[in-house]
Amino acid sequence: MNKVIKTDICVIGAGSGGLSVAAGAVQMGADVVLVEKAKMGGDCLNTGCVPSKALLAAAHAVQNARTASRFGVTTGQVEVNFAKAMDHVHSVISGIAPHDSVERFEDLGCTVIQAEGRFIAPDTLIAGDTEIRAKRFVIATGSRAAVPPIPGLDSVSYFTNENIFENRVCPEHLIIVGGGPIGLEMAQAHQQLGAKVTVIEMMTILPKDDPDMVEVVRDAIKASDITLYEGAKTKEVKSSGDKVRVIIEHDGIEITLEGSHLLLATGRRPNVENLGLEQAGIAFERTGISVDARLRTSNRKIFAIGDVTGGLQFTHMAGYDAGIVIRNALFKLPAKVNYSAVPWVTYTHPEVAQVGMTEATARARYGDNIRVVKWDYAENDRARAEDDTTGFIKVITSSKGHILGAGIVGRQAGELIGVWSLAISRKMKIGAIAGMITPYPTLGELSKRVAGAWYTPSLFSEKTRKIVRFLLKLG
């Protein structure tokens, strides 16, 4: 006989989105059941954002030591202990884990069930030996690494983001299939930590980002001795003793690459299997659960948020979605999502960050009725002081100055993009950024300078000079 629990909200999945809903709802007075079959904290904490950024931090520290001589600092031979770098990664995970733990959420008042959840009816979920009947359900089961159908893959060992952070030996030669954010971040991290790295990309690297910014990243990747094949088809993989061979086709030529390790970084797949979605009356496809602007599924008492919807697969999006669900489920407000000001960042060096429209998407929508302004890091005094002047900021506006999008490639781009996300979400014009006061010297001046550059053609025009001369004649 199953144990029966009746509750206000049942959240399925304890990743960033599910935890945000559970914590918010229970602290606002709702009765909450949280169901998770694997690790608390989900992909972001255990196999995604947190470990990847921790490994990049270790790698960048190595690179800074190697290049310190440009500041007159002699470091001698730089040695890397790869296992200790991974110790750092897991210490960061361990430090954050208590915030996402079963104990914390039980202390908040949630009932936490560590078992796989499956719908058996539109208002009922089975998790372990417990039957949960809820007024509202929230599906936040996230996504997993997509494994492409490469011939021979079942005969070799390979990494995805889900197990690469368990590796404690620096690869002799890491071959990465996939040139998106995960592939490039892991390529740079492992190269800086001492591995030979090859990246294979079927199309172009970072296809969602502005091509001008991607070119800067591409140059940096190639300059770091990472071998990059773009427009290359991975035809087959084979085991060769303790090595792995990857056969690709590039520019019409078949090339065989031999490496010590293989990483697949070819996108994500929503976790929609084994949830009993049909029994709950929830429409879905392999690409994710269908939701409306209020994040309701076809069963209006069930919401879906984050990666499982097949939309923008960022941790911060799952958190944003959680706020929309809480307003709908708890306060009965018809809150709707607005993804027009969603920022995203790839944490290579240089970083690349984007929010709103790229130049290409803006031109496709508005034609020539846009304006594009750029400002180089080389014109920023803080960047010069830190000898890191690679990159630029680009802003796209309407002809009247309404901000449509912004992109930054360069040092700390991810820290700088936030002001542009705010500006777009609040429908600000470029003048608001041009008029703000920024401390000197900071990289934040890049935003003010690029905004000021928008006014340069009119401010220093012949018409303006005539007006000034006329006014000066008046005394």
From TrEMBL:
UniProt-annotated binding residues for NAD(+): G178, G179, G180, P181, I182, G183, L184, E185, E201, G267
Q: Which Pfam families match?
A: Pyr_redox_2, Pyr_redox_dim
- Free-text cofactor note: Binds 1 FAD per subunit.
Q: Residue ranges of the FAD/NAD(P)-binding domain? A: 8-320
Question: Which pairs of Cys residues are joined through disulfide bonds in the record?
Answer: C44-C49
- Give the top-rank taxon of the lineage listed in the UniProt record for this protein: Bacteria
Where does the Pyridine nucleotide-disulphide oxidoreductase dimerisation domain start and stop, copy by copy?
342-446
* UniProt keyword Repressor, yes or no: no
Q: Which InterPro entries match?
A: FAD/NAD-bd_sf, FAD/NAD-binding_dom, FAD/NAD-linked_Rdtase_dimer_sf, Pyr_nuc-diS_OxRdtase, Pyr_nucl-diS_OxRdtase_dimer, Pyr_OxRdtase_I_AS
Q: Which GO terms describe its molecular function?
A: flavin adenine dinucleotide binding; NAD(P)H dehydrogenase (quinone) activity; oxidoreductase activity, acting on a sulfur group of donors, NAD(P) as acceptor
Alphabetically sorted, this entry's keywords are: Disulfide bond, FAD, Flavoprotein, NAD, NADP, Nucleotide-binding, Oxidoreductase, Redox-active center
Q: Which cofactor does it need?
A: FAD
Flavoprotein as UniProt keyword: yes
Concerning PROSITE patterns, the annotation shows: PYRIDINE_REDOX_1
Entry-linked PANTHER family: MERCURIC REDUCTASE
Q: Which family does it belong to?
A: Belongs to the class-I pyridine nucleotide-disulfide oxidoreductase family.
Could you identify this protein by its name? Dihydrolipoamide dehydrogenase
Record the organism.
Thalassospira profundimaris
Which classification does the entry list for the species? Answer: Bacteria, Pseudomonadati, Pseudomonadota, Alphaproteobacteria, Rhodospirillales
